[in-house]
Amino acid sequence: MKRLVLLVLVMSVLSGCVVYPNSHPHDNRNGGFCPPGQAKKGNC
Q: Disordered: where is this region (predicted)?
């Protein structure tokens, strides 16, 4: 019974883990991050 409770607890903790891809939607031409306000000004 303890194993079942431990298994459910571990599965509930691990279900909150998320892996995000390495790319950003705001990458500029040089491959770095460009904030939206700076992109509008043409500084990237």
A: 23-44
